[in-house]
Amino acid sequence: MPTNTVVLLKHVYDESQLKVDPATGGIDFSAVPGKMSSFDRNAVEEALRLRQQLGGTVTSLTLGTDAAVKSIREALAMGVDRAVLVRTSGETDAYAAGALLEKALARLQPWGLLLCAEGSTDTYTSLLPGMLAQRLGLPLISYARSLKLDGGALVGERSLERKTVTVRAALPAIASVVSEINEPRIPTLLQIMGAAKKELSVTQAESLGVTEQGYRTESMSGKGRERKRVVIEGPVQEAVSRLLDAMTREGVV
Amino acid sequence: MTPILTYSEDGELACELVAAAREISPSAEVAAVVLGDGDVSSLSESGCDVVCRVAGAAPVPEVAASAVAEVARQRATRMVLVGSTKDGKEVAGRLSVLLGCPAATECSRVGLESGRLRVERMAFGGRVSTVASMPGDSFVVALRPRAYARLGGAAKAGVTEVVVPAARRSVSVESVAGQPPSALDLTRADRIVSVGRGLKKKEDLELIRSLAGAMDASIGCSRPLSADLGWLGEESHIGLTGIQVKPKLYLAVGISGQLQHLAGIRDAGVVVAINNDKTAPIFSSCDYGVVGDLYQVVPELVAQLSAAKGREKGY
Ligand SMILES: Cc1cc2nc3c(=O)[nH]c(=O)nc-3n(C[C@H](O)[C@H](O)[C@H](O)COP(=O)(O)OP(=O)(O)OC[C@H]3O[C@@H](n4cnc5c(N)ncnc54)[C@H](O)[C@@H]3O)c2cc1C
After folding, report:
1. What is the pLDDT of residues B220-272, one digit of tens each?
2. CB neighbours (10 Å) of residue A170?
3. What's the CA gap between B175 and B102, in Å, rounded?
């Protein structure tokens, strides 16, 4: 029997385009372009790859504002079959996101595999995989650097700090992936045009029931650590000698 | 105040969490949860009031989360600190749902202020530092390794055996490929020589090893070298998605200095870069930089370091 996959997709501010006021550290988000959270491309790619064996469809599920449509279209161009946007008015904290996604996932039944990235490139909390596993009571293979299907089971290599653990879980299951799992495809122009015709359904987050948010962002600062920025050029021997002098003065060699 | 629970599968980090709990409240009871039958002597001397040992429980995220949640239920608390490791972040997500309270990961600082729990963490690839808050009596916070130093000179706490209902295991382990246990913990290194894609081939790591040897430094790397090329292990990967380090000296060789890499070295003392591209972003984020080919600069640096050492010894 074909098994459907759901892949989570987040639209985020492009962190490389943030404008920071060097004096105050204040951040101006108004002109920052959005993009698909980088690792989500790997989750989409993995869903498309596994679809060949699972035989079902791949649906992307996004929590976000209308701006997210840009990233959703990209995923559809990559090959995702259809997309769902749970429309929110702004940023949702991880706890509420878990509650909302649980409800949205129930509406997408039947599915046998839920894929997502290890974390998003904006807040990078990495909380959702564990939250969803707990809410849905499903096995989770987190930080997967490889995934394969073996009968009705998912086998994955978890890439941890000091070890790689190969684990097995029966479907339905959840996996969060790290970026080295694959090389995401780049859609062709034809696929990009075709994506506009694919189904994108929108649900209002409020209609799923409101969740209390206990997490509050109080302040943000883009003030980096100031470094001396002494750049040494010139013949190698001389440059190295100057570097060594500097390091010696600093007391670090 | 209800007790503060701490848990990490990493022994050192578990002790650091106790220090953080003490900072949240000097008077609240701090109960350190530990799974399995290992040695708890170090944890019991970390400054906690009691060690809650859950014998027979495997330190895998799904089991750990349900065990910690059960201890929390027994002690009527919803204040939990865990370690911000990969497993720890999965545990944090699970605990947040099990206890019904907000969670924050990758935190470098935690404290109570006007009844709210405040945490500091980075966002946007390390570009932004964020202060966030949660209710003062209900939170799961995952703290980064080395964010706090373990407390010294603490009295030995007693060990209580806690019985929890056996957790259902939905994920079975087939095999484990480990790093050698001797692999040096970079988060504690005083000097780090770190290498990136500027290195042309794996064999050239010898060059980096000779420099590390001459400087008495440990070796780290940018993400592509470990994650994509596999030239060094995942334990050497520095940055947002790897480890954060705070050595006195960080020497980046052939590393461009992207945001996500810099996120791992914010707390480094002196940052030095060797790169042949004068426009590489690392030159705006280092203290000293040499513009040059690493294949010429590194051997020269090794030679001059050895010569200097020789002079010191009076040769
Ligand atoms: C969400 C996310 C998370 C990430 N997390 C991390 C992370 O935790 N850690 C991390 O490191 N990266 C991370 N990355 C990747 C990061 O963006 C960069 O791609 C990566 O750090 C680049 O590694 P690099 O500097 O070694 O390689 P490159 O960017 O390719 O730079 C190589 C440098 O070597 C120099 N070079 C080349 N030849 C020589 C020579 N002969 N002599 C001297 N210099 C030479 C070049 O001028 C260049 O500056 C992440 C990316 C994303 C999207």
Report:
1. 999 999 989 999 998 999 999 899 999 999 999 999 999 999 999 999 999 99
2. 15
3. 34
SS3 B158: strand
Q: What share of chain B is helix, strand, coil (3-state, %, to 5)?
A: 30, 30, 40
Q: Are B192 and B221 a contacting pair, CB within 8 Å?
A: no
Contact B252, B232 (CB under 8 A): no
Distance, in angstroms, between B10 CA and closest chain A CA? 11
What is the value of pTM for the model shown? 0.93
Mutation choice for A interface testing from B8, B85, B97, B116 by most A CBs within 10 A: B97
pLDDT over 70, % of chain B: 97
Q: Does residue B179 carry a pLDDT above 80?
A: no
A172 preceded by a cis bond (ω within 30 of 0): yes
Calculate Rg over the CA atoms of chain A.
22
E strand segments, A10-152: 11-13, 19-20, 27-28, 34-36, 55-64, 82-87, 113-117, 140-150
Q: What is the pLDDT of residue B208?
A: 98
**Structure tokens given for B117:** 């729990």
Closest residue in chain A to residue B288, using alpha carbons only:
A230
Helix (H) or strand (E) holding B221: strand B218-221
Contact B93 A252 (CB under 8 A): no
Half-sphere exposure at residue B100, Cβ-oriented, CA atoms within 13 angstroms: 4
Pocket of ligand 1 (CB under 6 A): A 38-39, 121; B 196-198, 222-224, 238-242, 254-256, 258, 260-261, 264, 274-277, 280, 293-295
pLDDT of amino acid B182: 47
Nearest by CB to B300, from A158, A178, A240: name it. Answer: A240
* B170 contacts in chain A (CB < 8 Å): 138-140, 169-170
**Res. B214: pLDDT tops 70:** yes
- Taking the centre of ligand 1 as the mean of its atom positions, its distance from the CA of residue B195, in whole angstroms, is 9
Q: Which of A1, A199, A9, A3 is nearest to A111 (CA)?
A: A3
Per-residue pLDDT, B181:
54
- Picking from B98, B131, B178, the nearest residue to A134 by CB comes out as B98
Q: How far is A202 from chain B (nearest CA, A)?
A: 26
The amino acid sitting at B256 is S
Q: Is the CB of residue A61 less than 8 Å away from at least one CB of chain B?
A: no
**How far apart, in whole angstroms, are the C-alpha atoms of residue B260 and residue B143?**
19
Q: Which residue's entry shows tokens 């029931």?
A: A209
B307: which residues sit within 8 A by CB, 6+ positions away?
none
Domains of chain B: 4-161 (3.40.50.620), 186-313 (3.40.50.1220)
